[in-house]
Design brief:
single chain; about 425 residues; Dna Ligase, domain 1; binds adenosine monophosphate; binds glycine
Length: about 425
């Protein structure tokens, strides 16, 4: 089967890398892809939001399955467009993708189905939001309700800080239309975990657990980013906890989406806070996580294409996924300055040396090819990912690989996976 994968980040390189190993794959095209995906298939120079051209390409190239990496095309309804043309597409419909694209919708689904999450209120007017925040005397979390590339959330220890965040989003239009409405949410305490599952409308197949590191600095300090590193499994998520998350969160979400007339298929990603009162949903995403996908897919032994087709066909109850029992750790190498301004076009060296280390894969995120060299082209540049017997071994190997890679103003966190290592020992 020919497959068209849409997207160009580290997540898409990991998906392309895994799909390239699938038995049923004939040709893999990636639109637009990056220099990493070019090693797994053929990059096609079509942007992820150029839906007409993508569909035309799919028809001309006998694409049997379109796999949509990022959330924007999903929220814009790309899946329906492919399906209408008779082409299978992996991901939710535009209406179901609102579970991520509209945090107010997501909260409504959670409320209607008694899914545990932080108490919150929605505002579409800054003055009302300000009055409400000022009336509170504890920490608040302010969230743009629309898509903001993982940066639309401000955790504020004081209401005064919350008002400033609300003002930046609503009056300063920091995220444009995505910030016309905000959520003001109670702050939750605990460790976080990312729980991803294949969902085919009815059946749920939960993947191995993982954990992301959203803050830019060591010790989870500084502003949130798209994700500075991840590991899998997350030892804090015991089998018992995974059962509880499935029963209390995933099952009622999938049922609730059916009842709402927006049936869900694709990857359902629940960002969870493990509070003293039990697991609570921080957010839903409607796609694979980035960078969680890198360690998760390094551990997946089964055929990814088969799992994606079962998701599209409603036959997830017929498949079994096998996992490498080892741990995987992904360290993101970013451009200095990210998530604020950063420079691009810095020559990257040492990727081959890093990949010469056994069980290391360097996933490209923000890279480009220029005059035969790989250069930086984004905030998150590379996801250096390693397998190891224990999480500490995987971490050591990932950082050993990071040491080999050089580019001007390269930045990474030095404590990826430490939480898991502490939890285990
Ligand atoms: P989200 O994009 O909604 O997952 O939020 C991004 C990050 O902000 C999360 O991974 C948490 O670290 C933090 N966060 C979001 N909501 C809350 C909350 N209610 N309480 C504490 N931290 C939160
Ligand atoms: N790593 C967080 C996300 O993909 O949204």
């Amino acid at each position: 089967m020919n497959v068209l994968l849409i997207g160009n980040g580290g997540r898409e390189h990991a998906i392309a890398w895994k799909l390239a190993q699938s038995k049923g794959l004939k040709k893999l095209f990636i639109a637009p892809g990056n220099p990493g995906t070019a090693k797994c298939g053929t990059n096609v120079d079509i942007k992820a939001d150029d839906y007409d051209t993508l569909l035309g390409f799919a028809k001309d190239n006998k694409i049997g399955l379109a796999v949509i990496g990022p959330e924007d095309p999903l929220a814009a309804g790309i899946v329906e467009r492919f399906e209408k043309a008779g082409i299978k597409a992996f991901g939710p419909s535009g209406a179901a993708a609102q579970l991520e694209a509209d945090k107010a919708f997501s909260k409504q689904i959670m409320k209607a189905n008694a899914i545990p999450t932080a108490e919150s209120r929605t505002f579409d007017n800054f003055q009302d939001a300000k009055t409400y925040i000022a009336s509170r005397d504890e920490a608040v979390v302010i969230k743009a309700t629309g898509l903001a590339k993982g940066k639309g959330v401000f955790v504020c220890d004081e209401p005064a800080e919350g008002i400033i965040a609300a003002e930046k989003i609503m009056e300063g239009k920091l995220f444009g239309k995505a910030g016309e409405k905000i959520l003001v949410e109670d702050k939750l305490l605990g460790q976080e975990a990312s729980i991803l599952a294949f969902v085919d409308g009815r059946n749920i197949y939960v993947l191995e657990s993982s954990q992301d590191h959203k803050a830019v600095g060591d010790g989870d300090t500084g502003p949130n980013t798209g994700g500075m590193g991840a590991y899998s499994p997350a030892p804090i998520v015991t089998d018992k906890l995974m059962d509880q998350i499935t029963k209390e969160i995933l099952v009622p979400t999938v049922d609730g989406m059916n009842r709402n007339g927006t049936p869900y298929k694709g990857i359902l990603y629940a960002g969870i806070m493990l509070t003293q009162g039990g697991p609570r949903v921080l957010e839903f995403n409607v796609r694979f996580g980035d960078p969680e996908t890198q360690p998760i897919l390094m551990r997946l032994k089964s055929d990814l294409l088969e799992a994606m087709l079962a998701t599209c066909d409603g036959t997830l109850d017929k498949i079994t996924l096998e996992w490498d029992s080892r741990a995987a750790v992904c360290v993101v190498m970013a451009s200095g300055g990210y998530p604020d301004d950063y420079e691009k076009g810095k020559v990257i060296t040492g990727i081959e040396d890093a990949e010469a280390i056994k069980d290391v894969v360097v996933f490209h995120a923000g890279t480009a090819e220029k005059n035969g060299q790989i250069v930086t082209a984004g905030g998150r540049v590379l996801g250096v990912t390693a397998l190891g017997d224990k999480i500490a071994d995987a971490k050591a190997k990932a950082y050993q690989a990071v040491e080999k890679i050089k580019f001007e103003k390269a930045y990474c966190r030095n404590d990826i996976a430490d939480k898991a290592i502490k939890a285990k020992n």
